[in-house]
Specification:
alpha/beta, Dihydrofolate Reductase, subunit A, 5 helices, 8 strands, binds NADP nicotinamide-adenine-dinucleotide phosphate
Length: 198
Amino acid sequence: MNDTEPQTAEGKVLWHFTMSLDGFVAGPDHAMDWMSTGISARPGLEDEYVRTTGAVLGGRSGWDVSGDSRPYGSDWKGPIFVLTHHPEDATPADDVTFLNCGPAEAVRIGLEAAGGKNLEVFSPTIGRQLLELGLIDEIDLHIAPILLGDGIRLYDVPGSAPILLHRVGEDDPTSVVNVRYHPTRPANASPLSARASG
Ligand SMILES: NC(=O)c1ccc[n+]([C@@H]2O[C@H](COP(=O)([O-])OP(=O)(O)OC[C@H]3O[C@@H](n4cnc5c(N)ncnc54)[C@H](OP(=O)(O)O)[C@@H]3O)[C@@H](O)[C@H]2O)c1
């Protein structure tokens, strides 16, 4: 299987998500239940990020719907920064700092707190702002075998000019990734062989 090398801690700014094949990182109304249905990760993947993540930067919407749940469960300990224009009405939580500042300043604060490990950006809206500022080092995605059709896109910028990306760790960084999937069939669908003979 063609997969990425394990993540490394190098003081990078990672825009890091599990994403549906059609480009959504959350379903409608921030739904995340799709991530726990019929999707598996390579062994040890979560540990890679527990080891390499020094701090997390997110947005207020994601924080408000997460209900104080921490990234990577209770295995990861570290500072979380949440950008909001109105920190005064945020519910305080351990290791969480609400910031009302520009995205570049938020990255500076986050990287300093990360102490040489990576700063993970868990927000499509903030990631987009950082991309425009040239402050994203890597877009690190786990593409889940699912189509959501609706929700919050990784990159939702109508009218945007195309942004070319280079694949990390490839001889040809411009190469496409080839993938093939079978849709799982509804229980009442006829099997392929029956359709072929009928
Ligand atoms: N699939 C995955 O791996 C994964 C991982 C993590 C999170 N997620 C999901 O990602 C979604 C995040 O949603 P989202 O991107 O729509 O919202 P978001 O980025 O979490 O929150 C947007 C809010 O952040 C604040 N904000 C953004 N930029 C700001 C700036 N420059 N200055 C001050 N405040 C700023 C604003 O809050 P105010 O309105 O308070 O000003 C804005 O309304 C959530 O559903 C979350 O569950 C998915």
